[in-house]
Recover the amino acids of this structure.
């Protein structure tokens, strides 16, 4: 396991900042910021003279992402702008029939709700399942399915409660019942081990700017091979063609790989930064990252439980939590508490009616102690 000195060297956060908002927007690891600086310098001094190297980096990041989520191949990965674009790619490409329905939960971030609601004009309805009062959210989701349910679209980890779903269990049932599983994984990838094959995930989308420790505007989109040609395309441009560098060709076909979902020029700056971060994850190992993320949540939970003036609302039942911990002060609103913490350099968020702490694997324990001591009761 890397020690704190190694981790501190990989991050250059200002000493006045305790950063507990990886469920919002992450700080960049030093090596990713360096990659951006190098790339900017290259662009400034050389332009795109070495574009073939940039393309090689683009291929490399697909390989790294495929490995990270255990996709069968890099060809299953598209590099999109953000999670919302990935979900929209699924929603507007899926072969719906009027009368079909899609199941979501009542805790979803707007991106994973409104896109499905927007399908009403196609005769597709949304079934919203409450996850709050149930011990087995996967069963509750499945129980809402009927013969016209074509998809369950769910966050792997809920942004405003911290609830983590058992994707392997959910995916197993979906697979058996021929219901597609679409996962908004932005609160999971980079924090937890994610295995799209073990969980029979059909579609997965996650932007890099949270647990994945990359910049905004570059997202992984996984489309299971069995769906690739069945998703209708709705964005078109030079880059999604099979022979994308043949600018004179009048005939064209979509790329046989998931590149077909990327219409135009790639976000090369984001690709360089993300690739550097993915090297860091590979060096440390996602098992270790996950263990530390969960250990931080447990540590915070115990400390919050021990305080009379705070109430924790995230469930710490085995397998039900990830990196997000939400709690309330008995005397102060969450907004006010977050504002007060911010004045002390403690960066967190107000979500789900509570204070949201989301430290990452590299956050030193001593910083958690300082943040805990600063929480106004
Ligand atoms: C669960 C969840 N999905 C989606 C998003 C937004 O994703 P993007 O900006 O990548 O579309 C967020 C951001 O907070 C989120 O928490």
């Amino acid at each position: 396991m890397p020690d704190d000195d190694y981790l501190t060297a990989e991050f250059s956060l200002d000493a006045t900042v305790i950063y507990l908002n990886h469920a919002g927007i992450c700080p960049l690891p030093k090596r990713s910021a360096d990659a951006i600086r190098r790339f900017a310098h290259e662009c400034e001094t050389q332009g795109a003279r070495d574009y073939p190297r940039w393309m090689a980096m683009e291929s490399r990041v697909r390989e790294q992402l495929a490995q990270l989520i255990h996709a069968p191949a890099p060809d299953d990965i598209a590099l999109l702008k953000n999670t919302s674009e990935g979900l929209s790619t699924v929603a507007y490409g899926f072969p719906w029939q009027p009368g079909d329905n899609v199941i979501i939960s009542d805790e979803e971030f707007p991106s994973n709700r409104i896109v499905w609601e927007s399908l009403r004009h196609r005769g597709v309805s949304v079934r919203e399942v409450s996850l709050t009062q149930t011990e087995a959210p996967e069963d509750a989701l499945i129980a809402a399915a009927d013969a016209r349910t074509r998809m369950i679209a769910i966050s792997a980890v809920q942004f405003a409660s911290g609830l983590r779903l058992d994707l392997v269990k959910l995916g197993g049932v979906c697979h058996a019942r021929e219901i597609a599983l679409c996962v908004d994984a932005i609160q999971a990838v980079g924090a937890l081990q994610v295995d799209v094959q073990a969980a029979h995930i059909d579609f997965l989308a996650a932007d890099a700017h949270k647990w994945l420790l990359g910049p905004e505007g570059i997202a992984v989109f996984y489309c299971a091979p069995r769906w690739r040609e069945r998703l209708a395309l709705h964005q078109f441009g030079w880059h999604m063609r099979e022979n994308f560098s043949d600018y004179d060709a009048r005939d064209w076909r979509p790329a046989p790989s998931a590149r077909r979902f990327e219409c135009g020029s790639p976000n090369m700056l984001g690709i360089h930064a993300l690739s550097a971060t993915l090297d860091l994850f590979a060096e440390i190992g996602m098992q270790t990252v996950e263990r530390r993320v969960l250990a931080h949540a447990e540590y915070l939970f115990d400390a919050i439980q021990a305080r009379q003036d705070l109430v924790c609302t995230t469930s710490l039942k085995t397998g039900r939590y990830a990196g997000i911990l939400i709690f309330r002060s008995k005397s102060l609103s969450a907004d006010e508490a977050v504002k007060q913490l911010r004045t002390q350099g403690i960066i967190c968020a107000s979500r789900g009616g509570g204070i949201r702490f989301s430290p990452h694997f590299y956050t030193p324990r001593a910083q958690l102690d300082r943040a805990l001591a600063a929480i106004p009761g």
About this structure: The radius of gyration is 21 Å. The CA atoms of residues 157 and 164 lie 4 Å apart. Residues 33-283 form a domain with the Aspartate Aminotransferase; domain 2 fold (CATH 3.40.640.10).
